[in-house]
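Morning run. Coffee first, then this:
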Amino acid sequence: METLRDRLLPALLAAGQTGWLCGGAEMAGEEVPGAPRLAAVLVALAVETVVLDRRRQAPVRTLAWTLGTLLLGQGAWPDGYFGIGALVSLYSVAVRRPVPVTLRAVAAVVGVEWLLSLAHVGLRPALASEWALGALVHVVCAGLGEGRRQWLRGRSAAARRLAGAEETRRRAADTERHRLARELHDVTAHHLTSVVITANAARRLGDSRPELTAEALSFAERTGTETLTALRRLVGLMRDVDGADAGPMTARIEELIAGFGRLGRPIEAELPADLAGPAAEAVHGIVREALTNTLRYAPGCAVRVSVRRGAGVLELTVDNAPPRGTATSGAGGLGSGRGLAGMRERAAVVGGEATAGPRPDGGWRVRATLPDVTGPWGPPDGTERADLLREQRLADPALVFAAAVLPLTFALAVAEDWTAADLRGALPGLLVLAVLQTVHALPLLWRRRAPWAALLGVLATSWLWPTAVAVAAVPEQVSRFFDVGALAELLAVYAIGVYGGGADRTWPAWGASAVSLSSVLVATAAAEGKLTTLGSARLTAVVVFVPLAVMTAGVFAALWGAGLAVRRRRLRILAVDDHELSASLWHAERAADAERWRLAAKLRDAVLEHTSTLVERARQARLEDVAVEARSALAAMRELLHGLSTSEQRGGGDRG
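And here it is:
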């Protein structure tokens, strides 16, 4: 499809140019040059047609070739070679290259056009209009290309977001299996392994060191209880399918902290009231792992959890005081290190980082820095409006340039027939025309972000026209081109339709613009002394104003409607993107929820049952049964982890 589109436009241009060469020029009364010059035009046309096929892949190189064909073709036959390929390739440069490259391309094309105009027209008054028109056409072409580039960039970003969401959806179950397996291993592996090792040692050395039996039973009861509590909490979190919503998570984190506090000393916490989003989910997971490790290795020690906002980041700190005496959990050392790896993974998923290490006083500190997209530094409200207001560093200035230069271009085109005396007399008026039209067009720079302010600015500056005629005595041969400046009003009303809001909020714009512009035109005519047809200037003004206002109101209403149609189309596209993205994320969450429920059921039926029996046997002082149940629980846990690993590998193979 892209290949067909790439070739269709050059073919149409070549067909039109060939039709003109084969008879159109002669029918229009143009003088057909001799065979050598005609051959040069045909060569230029052939090269232009071929290189335009590569305008998407190599736009700058294509532009260079089309400028060469422009010089060749127009040098051979100025009135016979169109040279539209340079415009097409300039548009492609603006669409597919950054603004600095586009600006250099515009300068190159305008420079070549000006040189050709100078060669064909010479140093005559007509040269000024040729130069102005050439600059106007190419700047507007580049501006339209820049606008298209911004739209395509937005569509590409939306496609990438959707592709990422789809990949997340496809991998949701595997990702959740991996995460839950890591948490399950962190919660149970070390504890159950320690119970098995301690019980076996007590059984082997029971005859020589009978005190080990009591210590092993006490350790098994205490560790089994901790494991049971952690597993039940993990099962509860797995079954909490409402926990991944986008609402505030502060209450959930506080509940998590309070639950751990009930297992030992109360935990001091300092949290913002509006934590939400992926960063808050990461905070929840990191705090849970940090407090689990504290419960293992430093039970009863003072703990403080702090989450503070910085410039666009969340600063999480979990501090626990040094353990009193020897840690009673029997963990020894720093554990397997998987807890820290899990914290780092959670932080990395949202673009942050996490560290953990000893404090100078002998305690332990976990720190995490996470990007905050929900606080005062997060994205602004009004996503739809933000999508419509993408940066236009060239498109808007190009429209301002067009609205300012177009009236001057018309005036310079008419000036070709003026005498030298007329030109000298009109020169101050031409300067006033250029200044006033520039001032009149400048508010269009804000037509996207402040469309109403831009429209009011355009309407207000138009009243400088009758003032200039009355005060500065602008000659009639110049002042009549003030009317062409109404292009700024047209662009401003169109911008109201696209960026101003819905129809119920923007409908007064076209009516007010029609009344204002008609009043300005009538006032300008009155200042020129033209309203004397019916004897009374006031009566003539009314007679002229009414049909003029009706006519301009129809034009403005049509442009306003076109702007509304464009707005609705864009918002509809954005709504479809949002729906697809939300649906993909919803399916990802449901897949993760299903995996959590499945694992929670297996965990409850397998590991929890053996762990509960282990605690009960320890309380009954049945060391042999404690060792058996610990091994059974550990075997069940390992089988469950192996099943998760197998499922993940099978899922990855299916995707491949």
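The beta strands are 268-270, 303-309, 313-320, 353-358, 364-371. Good start to the day.
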